[in-house]
Amino acid sequence: MPSISVFFPAYNDAGSIGKLVRSADLLLPALSEDFEIVVVNDGSSDGTTELLNELQQQYPSLKVVHHGINRGYGAALITGFANCTKDLIFYTDGDGQYDIHELPRLLAALDDDVDLVTGYKIRRSDPRYRIVTGHIYRDLVRIMFGLKVKDVDCDFRLFRRCILRQFQLRCDSGVICVELIKKCQLRGCRIVEIPVHHYHRASGQSQFFSAKHLSRVMMQLGITWLRLVVGGQRVRTPELSERPHALQRELGGSQS
Questions:
Q1: Which pLDDT belongs to residue 237?
Q2: How far is residue 11 from each of residues 8, 169, 174, 199, measured CA to CA in Å?
């Protein structure tokens, strides 16, 4: 098996991040001889910082990066990806709404000619208003960006780290998920989808519906649409999808 980085972005997830780290440390030796666990603490104020510092003393495979202030979900992902050093990167949120024990199913789907495996929720386990708004957002961005995945907001993904050499991620909000999938499509990456379970949030609180966050999401959606849809043909390289193992090689390619 190739080496693998398991990465959790965390913001005020003191009630769940410890269980995720422990579960990952138990699971990973059965999947790869070369692994690491990375957590980016995005300016938490609930005890997450202290807990991660303790966990780092207990688990040699754990690497923790702290943001001094809350920079946003996208910024946490960008920092995390930059600190992952293994061949494969798997990430899911630090709130525990996905089960890391479903990671082997994603690994099984990562054939030699597959670049990214993304989950889609079998059933969303959230309050009704979040389910409705989630469906609206998902359908809106699929139409706006021409996305070919069922569930762009399912943050349970496995991909080859070499993909990140093909483009630069810029969005510091949740729009980064749209940006990631769209840029992969533009580069001709082969994407496979796997159904995964979604669970009720046991602790913490979503920041999605704050006025500040919503305004940032709408602004970044507009900017990203102009850059990747209106100007997307300038960076398209469809030949990548025609060559097996294309993204496992060192390729040049412009960044966008």
A1: 42
A2: 10, 20, 13, 18
139 pLDDT band (50/70/90 cuts)? very high
- Block residue for tokens 């810029």: 170
What does the pLDDT look like over 185-199, one tens digit per residue?
999 999 999 999 999
Terminal Cα distance for the chain, rounded: 32
Provide the token pair at 84.
Answer: 């992952």
Q: State the CATH class of domain 4-248.
A: alpha beta
Coil vs helix vs strand at 169: coil
Tokens found for residue 252: 């040049």
- Kindly tell me the burial class for residue 61, based on how many C-beta atoms sit within 10 Å of its own C-beta (0-12, 13-18, 19 or more): middle
**Edge-to-edge order in the sheet of strand 191-196:** 62-67, 35-42, 4-10, 88-92, 156-160, 116-121, 191-196
Q: Contact at 8 Å (CB) between 40 and 74?
A: no
Burial grade of 42 (CB within 10 A; 0-12, 13-18, 19 or more): buried
Tokens of 181: 């999938």
Q: What is the pTM of this model?
A: 0.87
Query: Residue 12 — left, alpha, or beta (φ > 0 → left; ψ -120 to 50 → alpha)?
Result: left
Q: Residue 132's CB: how many other CB atoms inside 10 A?
A: 11
Range scoring the smallest mean pLDDT among 26-30, 95-99, 223-227, 241-245: 241-245
Distance of CA 48 to the CA centre of its chain: 20
Domain positions in the chain = 4-248
Q: Which tens digit of pLDDT belongs to each residue from 145-187?
A: 999 999 999 999 999 999 999 999 999 999 999 999 999 999 9
Residue 130 is predicted with a pLDDT of 78
CA distance 137 to 131: 10
